[in-house]
């Protein structure tokens, strides 16, 4: 359910459970975490997260969420692993981003989305706290009030509004999403090892 393709320094991780809106099980989260650790160890120059179908991810698998996945530390572990990667990271969102899946996208350096994507994180409605790092990363992108609009007022944000807010960086036609992500990663993949990580440190 988690695909990986490697083309030189470019690694593409694909959520492959479209029949369940790419809802995430613990095994899927663990596999992405393993890939991120491997990418760091093997010197990946760029890592792209994307999905199959019309939804990037609906968040946690409902059955596993009821069994405790919604509050499992794997979400925070994974987003921290992605945020710490010394390479360029791109979330190429092929559709709606919801719930706990926000964490991995917020941890990326860049976010692309297709025109019909929606963004919502209904923790208030469901009675959960967001994962610890997500509110800070969200507020850094959109500001505190807009972060509260998403996390506390339960607002569902469309792609155009998400772009205006700074939640995403570019809206891309579905058929051009993979190509656009690869083009954005091209300079990082061609650079000498360590340069992307050094620039990320300077930006921080």
Descriptive labels:
204 residues; alpha/beta; 2-enoyl-CoA Hydratase, Chain A, domain 1; six-stranded mixed beta sheet; four-stranded mixed beta sheet; 10 helices; 10 strands; 44% helix
Distance linking N and C termini: 33 Å
CATH architecture annotation? Alpha-Beta Complex
- β-strand percent reads 15-25%
Count of all domains? 1
Please tally the β strands and state the result. Answer: 10
Strands in their spatial order, largest beta sheet? 1-2-3-5-7-10
Task: Give a nutshell description of this structure.
The chain is of the alpha/beta class and 204 residues long.
Provide a descriptive summary of the structure in words.
It is a single chain. The chain has one domain: 2-enoyl-CoA Hydratase, Chain A, domain 1 (Alpha-Beta Complex), CATH 3.90.226. It is built from 10 helices and 10 strands. It has helices at 26-42, 62-66, 74-84, 102-106, 123-126, 134-142, 144-151, 159-165, 177-190, 195-203, and strands at residues 2-7, 10-15, 46-51, 55-57, 88-93, 96-98, 110-113, 118-120, 157-158, 170-171. The strands form 2 sheets. Strands 1-2-3-5-7-10 form a 6-stranded mixed beta sheet. A 4-stranded mixed beta sheet has the order 4-6-8-9. Helix 1 links the parallel strand 2 (10-15) and strand 3 (46-51). The longest helix is centred in the first third of the chain and has 17 residues, at 26-42. The mean pLDDT is 96.
């Amino acid at each position: 359910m988690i695909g990986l393709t490697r083309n030189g320094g470019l690694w593409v991780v694909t959520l492959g459970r479209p029949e369940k809106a790419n809802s995430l099980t613990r095994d899927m989260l663990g596999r992405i975490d393993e890939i991120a650790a491997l990418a760091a160890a093997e010197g990946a120059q760029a890592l792209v997260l994307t999905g199959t179908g019309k939804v990037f991810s609906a968040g946690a698998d409902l059955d596993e969420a009821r069994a405790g996945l919604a509050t499992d530390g794997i979400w925070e572990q994974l987003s921290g692993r992605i945020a710490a990667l010394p390479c360029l990271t791109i979330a190429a969102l092929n559709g709606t981003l919801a719930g706990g899946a926000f964490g991995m996208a917020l941890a990326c350096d860049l976010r692309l989305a297709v025109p019909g994507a929606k963004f919502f994180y209904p923790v208030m409605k469901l009675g959960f706290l967001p994962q610890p790092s997500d509110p800070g990363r969200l507020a850094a992108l959109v500001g505190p009030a807009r972060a509260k609009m998403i996390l506390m007022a339960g607002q569902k944000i469309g792609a155009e509004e998400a772009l205006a807010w700074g939640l995403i960086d570019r809206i891309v036609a579905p058929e051009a999403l993979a190509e656009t992500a690869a083009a954005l990663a091209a300079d990082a993949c061609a650079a000498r090892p360590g340069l992307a990580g050094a620039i990320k440190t300077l930006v921080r």
